Amino acid sequence: MANLADPRRLWADGKAIDVHGVAVTRLTAGPAPTTLAAAGHGVVEVLGVESETTLVRLDVPLDGAVGFWHPAAGWDRHLTADWMATGLRTVGLVDSAPLGCLYDDAGRAVLAFASDRLVHTTRLRFGVGERAGRFGVWLAMDLGPGELCRIRIAPPGGAVAETVRSLVRRQSGTAALPVPEAGRVPAYSTWYSYHQEVSATAVEAEAELAAELGCGLLILDDGWQRGAYGGDYAGCGDWEPDPEKFPDFGAHVETVHGLGLKYLAWIAPLLLGDDSAARDRLASFAPHARPEWRCHVLDPRHEEVRRFVVDTCVRLVDRYGLDGLKIDFLDTAMVYAKDSTRREEAVHPESGTGREDRANPEDRARPEDGGRPEDGGRPEDGGRPEDGGDVGEAMRALLTELRDGLMAVRGAELMIELRQPYTGPGMLEFGNLLRAGDCPADAAGNRVRTLDLSVAGRESAVHSDMLMWDPQASPQVAARQLLSVLHAVPQISVPLAQLPAAQRAMAGFWLAFWRERRDVLTRGALDAGHPDQLHPVVIARDATRAVVVHHVSDHAATLDPTRFAEIAVVNNTGAERVLLDLTHPAAVRLDVRDACGTPVRSETACLEPGPRWLAVPPSGLCLIRPA
After folding, report:
1. Residue 169: left if φ>0, alpha if ψ -120 to 50, beta else—which one?
2. How confident is residue 376, by pLDDT bands cut at 50, 70 and 90?
3. DSSP, res 154
4. C or N: which end of the chain has fewer Cβ atoms within 10 Å?
């Protein structure tokens, strides 16, 4: 049996091939891996055999490797040892993806891979082999007899972001859910502003102020539904508006629409609250308890659950004129994966707590062209698994029905927000607003999370976690929350009516800046710099414009000032200057503004090649244009 918990087995000999300098070794019984020709990548085919978990190792010499990125890495991208628990994960449809990149101190790929098992569970282990002097990635998969897994391996030496994007483009064969215009505008969220203490009166007042600031989307978070109080989820399951907070929910939505904002409402459709009226009817389909949340988790493998979720969500959108939903806690379904994963205890015996419990197998169609699914990987039965079967198939079937049902109501204008960790390539067909995981007031964390989402592609709308800040802080300090996520769609979540005038001026200035440069910021080429240093300088560019955001003042941004009609240099630090490294001389005009948009100075200058400091106020802006 393949045992990822036993480091002594990880470096055993096996049937191996070499692909782009990566040793690919099968450590369990079965035929040796084979390769297919594919543009730019090596594609490894691994064939399943009877009654055997398949374990494959990818490994390379350590050389100059300094870190390992994967979709759920967050802060933790250091080189872990192969025996440490930090290098052990379960991935699938609603938790990350079988994708990773080992990189060097120049931000270049050393070992980059992506498996085509986007829904079916893969157990991953990665880390440094102390005795081997190599870095390894192990993939444990329950492949049925004759079932193929294809693993793409990118050539080394490319920038991490571009390398990962090239893998993701071939990892999923389905088209992403289109993003309407309203999904690419600044949003206002009620969560950090009000938590569950929302009401029609308060939300409408905030919506009016949000529209004045330039927001085009309102997201009503938890608290609108009957039984939402006390900070838990005991009332979830009925999904009816609280009549005291929202006496006429449909009229309320129309009022917000009249202010020029689209409207999404929060829902956690797999949570069944202990106090909900639906509890008696659905209790038998929700055996897993979350006592700290005062709810149970519905098991999506049951047709009754899938029908309940789809009918509830479609009814909510249709009845109240919503433009879509913010769908939360989809990853809770993975508590049932253990029941449907073959020989799980043999693969990962220490599982039982945390996210490593989550699994979601899938039977995927295997195409002949090197790994691009012809039908998006749906099961042959149309995605309707039997009750008690595979939880991954169940989630895919649920999400397919849900998306189709909502699109029948809203068409191409539909918006569905998903959040990390269920934002991997396999989820792009089910949601079009991909939000960073919760990180309240953590500007650096929000930057890293949104860049992790952006690195996999720019087709969907990447949204920041909701932005909150201290209303007593200076506008320069408050602005850093917003400036840290300029490359994403910002979601504001502070009580706007309580903001001091300076903070309101700051928010208005930077949201206007963002709207004017939205396309370059969210759709242009994105250079996120060094992943091991958590991206100290981020540059977005198109053919004529560039936006350079310094998150650390003494890291140089390399630029050609003759290439662009405008370079916007943003100082997202507390320092009074930032560092540029210019490749060509240029005569330019400099227009400098502070955090609130107040002009500081305008001047012409002759910029010489090489490093130079540029004076920009903290949380301020310098526009560089040809003189």
Report:
1. alpha
2. very low
3. P
4. C
Residue 415, beta-bridge partner list = 324
Q: pLDDT tier at 2 (50, 70, 90 boundaries)? A: low
> What is the reported pLDDT for 382?
38
Residue 188 exposure: Cα atoms within 13 Å on the Cβ side: 32
Contacts of 319 (CB under 8 A, 6+ apart): 250
Provide the residue type at 225 as one letter. Q
Coil, helix or strand at residue 147: coil
Q: Which two tokens stand for residue 488?
A: 């994403």
* Torsions phi, psi for 594 (to 5 deg): -90, -170
What is the rounded distance in angstroms from the CA atom of residue 469 to the CA atom of residue 490?
Answer: 13
Please check whether residue 551 is in contact with residue 608, taking contact to mean a CB–CB distance below 8 angstroms: no
| Predicted confidence band of residue 374 (pLDDT cuts 50, 70, 90) | very low
State the CB neighbour count (10 A cutoff) for residue 507: 29
Q: Check whether 543 has a pLDDT greater than 50.
A: yes
- Whether residue 555 contacts residue 528, with contact meaning beta carbons closer than 8 Å, is answered with no
| Angle, in degrees to the nearest 10, between helices 200-213 and 249-258 | 20
Cis before 421? omega within 30:
yes
> Are 568 and 512 in contact, with CB atoms under 8 Å apart?
no
422 token code pair: 């269920």
Do the beta carbons of residue 23 and residue 56 sit within 8 Å?
A: no
Strands 557-559 and 295-297, by their bridges, are: unpaired
Buried b (16+ CB within 10 A) or exposed e, 481-500: bbbbbbbbbbbbbbbbeebe
* pLDDT tens digit sequence for 487-530: 999 999 999 999 999 999 999 999 999 999 999 999 999 998 88
At 53 the pLDDT is 86
Report residue 99's pLDDT band, with 50, 70 and 90 as the boundaries.
Answer: very high
DSSP symbols for 568-609? EEEE-SSSSEEEEEESS-EEEEEEEE-TT--EEEEEEEEEPS
Question: Whats the size of the chain, residue-wise?
Answer: 627
pLDDT in tens, 189-220: 999 999 999 999 999 999 999 999 999 999 99
Q: How far apart are CA 461 and CA 185, in angstroms?
A: 9
* CA pair distance 150, 446, nearest whole angstrom: 33
Separation between Cα atoms, residue 520 and residue 24, nearest integer Å? 39
CA angle 372, 180, 514 (to 5 degrees): 110
**Among candidates 462, 487, 480, which has minimal Cα distance to 538?**
487
Which stretch of DSSP H or E encloses residue 621? strand 621-626
Count of CB atoms situated within 10 Å of the CB of 369 = 12
pLDDT by residue (tens digit) across 69-92?
999 888 888 999 999 988 888 888
Residue type, 172: S
Mean pLDDT on 597-613: 97
According to DSSP, the residues that pair with 41 across neighbouring strands are 38
pLDDT of residue 120: 83
Provide the 8-state DSSP code for 183: G
Which residue type sits at 426? G
Residue 116 in tokens: 């085509």
* HSE, side-chain direction, 13 A CA sphere, residue 601: 8
Contact indicator for 359, 302 with CB cutoff of 8 Å: no
Considering only CA atoms, which of 515, 494, 416, 454 is closest in space to residue 215?
515
Q: Looking at 528-574, which runs of residues are DSSP E strands? A: 537-541, 545-550, 557-559, 566-571
